[in-house]
């Protein structure tokens, strides 16, 4: 039996798509093996949001071929879409597939044997609504990602995604429903709604809220979690639903990108700090114990120390719990790539470190304020010390040592102690 391995770089949407691609290989008679094992085919689902992601992809190719020089290497996704000619120069790649055909990678492998030159499949990305024909995806994680949308029309000045994934398009409403019902029948208790810009979902009069309400109505699904969602696309009605329905996880990840209006304007974001914070404050007041997270880019061209200090103050003084920090990475084709006043790497590194420290402090405080509460834990995996781990509805990372529990159990636990980035808990049913 032929063997295939997979590696996913980047976002949760990529994770969802890798699971779908992997299913086609299983159905095609392949045995799926861990990435660190020798395989006949290795598929790398790429990311190109940063220069680091590009470099990591090239490093992975070398790593695969060092382990087995005869492995057929396919690089698919965003990096393939934007930089196929650069990838063509990397020794050992046999297949380069862009965004449009990435889920059909197996169909482009006639025989998994090394080729003198890579085959390149890089079509223009279709703007039409779409369905996903892969049935019964083989998902190994406890939480299942469900893709509802792809692409983006916002054209933020720093972002390469519209070039890598195309313009915004939505998945057929009935096709989302079909997959969600299938996942519930397989025993999944939590679905994570994924896409590039999920709040812009539109299909035959159906909106993002219609998708959300449909998912909440499916029997067997106990938790629906929303992945990253753009601030200008969130209707306030979402907060009412979240407050009233325990199935909808009280956890939102809403990218801010900068806490300075001057920088937001240069980024071509569609809001200012005041408008963003109005929604954050409303969510905090409406929903007890909600965890609010964000993304911030440091070192954007022209960002002064005063601008950065303002961003830190905006984050520090807000109800936001933690931040994913990204150092600005110049991307070809983007407007920001042509801006003057670039920030030197040392300054970007220092600003990133400062914001990480502040984020860790705020998350620690949130965890400590949650002690004593009884929350729901979805059991996901067992650590090296034998403790089971998972996340609460509001995304607190929890560890427990409770006899008799197993993966995919949804149990009540009482939060007792914070150690590093984990909250230790005991049985909450006593």
UniProtKB/TrEMBL annotation:
It catalyses: N(6)-L-threonylcarbamoyladenosine(37) in tRNA + (sulfur carrier)-SH + AH2 + 2 S-adenosyl-L-methionine = 2-methylsulfanyl-N(6)-L-threonylcarbamoyladenosine(37) in tRNA + (sulfur carrier)-H + 5'-deoxyadenosine + L-methionine + A + S-adenosyl-L-homocysteine + 2 H(+). Keywords: 4Fe-4S, Cytoplasm, Iron, Iron-sulfur, Metal-binding, S-adenosyl-L-methionine, Transferase, tRNA processing. Its EC number is 2.8.4.5. SUPFAM superfamilies: Radical SAM enzymes. InterPro entries: Elp3/MiaA/NifB-like_rSAM, Methylthiotransferase, Methylthiotransferase_CS, Methylthiotransferase_N, Methylthiotransferase_N_sf, MiaB-like_bact, rSAM, rSAM_horseshoe. It is an enzyme of class 2 (transferase). The keyword Transcription regulation does not apply. Residues 138-365 form the Radical SAM core domain. Belongs to the methylthiotransferase family. MtaB subfamily. PANTHER family: RADICAL SAM PROTEINS (PTHR11918), THREONYLCARBAMOYLADENOSINE TRNA METHYLTHIOTRANSFERASE (PTHR11918:SF45). Catalyzes the methylthiolation of N6-threonylcarbamoyladenosine (t(6)A), leading to the formation of 2-methylthio-N6-threonylcarbamoyladenosine (ms(2)t(6)A) at position 37 in tRNAs that read codons beginning with adenine. This is Threonylcarbamoyladenosine tRNA methylthiotransferase MtaB. It comes from Uabimicrobium amorphum.
């Amino acid at each position: 039996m032929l063997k295939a391995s997979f590696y996913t770089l980047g976002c949760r949407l990529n994770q969802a798509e890798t699971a779908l691609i992997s299913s086609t290989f299983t159905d095609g008679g392949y045995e799926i093996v861990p990435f660190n094992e020798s395989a006949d085919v290795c598929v790398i689902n790429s990311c190109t949001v940063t220069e680091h992601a590009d470099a990591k992809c090239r490093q992975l190719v070398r790593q695969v071929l060092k382990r087995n020089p005869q492995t057929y290497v396919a690089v698919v996704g965003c990096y393939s879409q934007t930089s196929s000619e650069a990838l063509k120069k990397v020794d050992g790649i046999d297949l380069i597939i862009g965004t449009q055909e990435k889920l059909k990678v197996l169909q482009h492998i006639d025989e998994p044997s090394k080729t003198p030159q890579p085959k390149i499949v890089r079509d223009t990305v279709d703007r039409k609504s779409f369905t996903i024909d892969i049935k019964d995806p083989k998902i190994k994680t406890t939480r299942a990602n469900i893709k509802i949308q792809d692409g983006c029309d916002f054209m933020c000045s720093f972002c390469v995604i519209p070039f890598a994934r195309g313009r915004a398009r939505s998945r057929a409403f009935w096709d989302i429903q079909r997959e969600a019902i299938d996942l519930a029948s397989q025993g999944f208790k939590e679905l994570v709604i994924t896409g590039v810009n999920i709040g812009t979902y539109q299909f035959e009069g159906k909106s993002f809220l219609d998708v959300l309400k449909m998912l909440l109505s499916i029997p067997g699904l106990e938790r629906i979690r929303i992945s990253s969602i753009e601030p200008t696309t969130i209707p306030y009605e979402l907060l009412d639903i979240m407050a009233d329905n325990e199935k909808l996880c009280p956890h939102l990840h809403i990218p801010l990108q900068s806490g300075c209006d001057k920088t937001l304007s240069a980024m071509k974001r569609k809001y200012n700090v005041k408008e963003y914070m109005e929604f954050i404050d409303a969510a905090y007041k409406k929903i007890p114990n909600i965890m609010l997270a964000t993304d911030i880019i440091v070192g954007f061209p022209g960002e002064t120390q005063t601008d950065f200090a303002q961003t830190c103050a905006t984050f520090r003084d807000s109800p936001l719990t933690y931040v994913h920090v990204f150092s600005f990475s110049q991307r070809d084709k983007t407007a920001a790539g042509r801006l003057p006043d670039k920030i030197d790497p040392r300054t970007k590194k220092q600003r990133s470190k400062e914001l990480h420290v502040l984020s860790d402090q705020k998350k620690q405080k949130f965890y400590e304020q949650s002690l004593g509460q009884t929350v729901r834990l979805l059991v996901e995996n067992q650590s090296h010390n034998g403790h089971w781990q998972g996340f609460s509805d509001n995304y607190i990372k929890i560890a427990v040592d409770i006899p008799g529990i197993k993966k995919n159990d949804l149990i009540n636990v009482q939060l007792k102690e914070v150690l590093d980035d984990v909250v230790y808990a005991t049985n909450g049913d006593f």
